[in-house]
Amino acid sequence: MSRVMVDCTWLKEHLDDKDLVLLDAFMLKVVGKEPIEYSEFVTIPGALPFDIESDFCDNQSTQLHALPTPQQFTEQVQRLGINKQTRVVIFDNQGIYSAPRAWWTFKVMGFDNVKVLDGGLPAWIESGYPTSSTYAQVPDRGDFVANYNASKVTDYQTVLAELNNPQQLVVDARGSARFNAEVAEPRPGVRAGRIPNSVNLPFASLMDGSRFKSKQALSQLFSDIGTADSERLVFSCGSGITACILILAAHEIGLSNTILYDGSWAEWGANEALPLGE
Description:
By secondary structure, the protein is of the alpha/beta class. 25% of the residues lie in helices and 14% in strands. Strands 1-5-4-2-3 form a 5-stranded parallel beta sheet.
């Protein structure tokens, strides 16, 4: 089995397992790719909603799409019936888009028995498996308590302090036009450009339809940006969502020293005091 993903066949066989919780990690706004549209609501039978933009986002933070607080995460996953022994599988309706963000949120909060469905809902439908027009009933309250792992997340102060450290590589998941400041940023008040010494690996370049490219192809893409020479991989994007697609891919090929810059370009680009890459 994959390091970090399960396929549709595996999920179909385990869908009724008592210890399995299936989460639909949806986002209403899709950026950086052509969104897959659905004429009516559809999900995988037994799935529960994992609302990244409200329930699992610290909306008290000044930062866009900030990770939830440990207390917030604890409350929300307990509502979803998640226990210490639960196996969690996450998918989204775009294939692989927002599910990696949910997966990394679990990892940051100290929950490790979590995987992403390769290809997500599109692959499930393509496989001809049954779908549902409603979410499942939430089970009894769970008992998982977050244990925040600060080593998996970083802030702009730390990124800035380590800009010239050869042991750190900042990898930006935005499209090349945004990375190279060839287009304006979609968010008002955010400068065009990139973090100094960062490299570009657009998340779309990792995809083959709704799935990741082969492990060999992923390994080559990471090798091409010089990841073999770096010990500390810091991932950034527009607001911390699609960076997690790169983190998932990195883990899939065995690169595990991965850190999310959660503020990402929405924070860095809005702060005039922070330098721009040339």
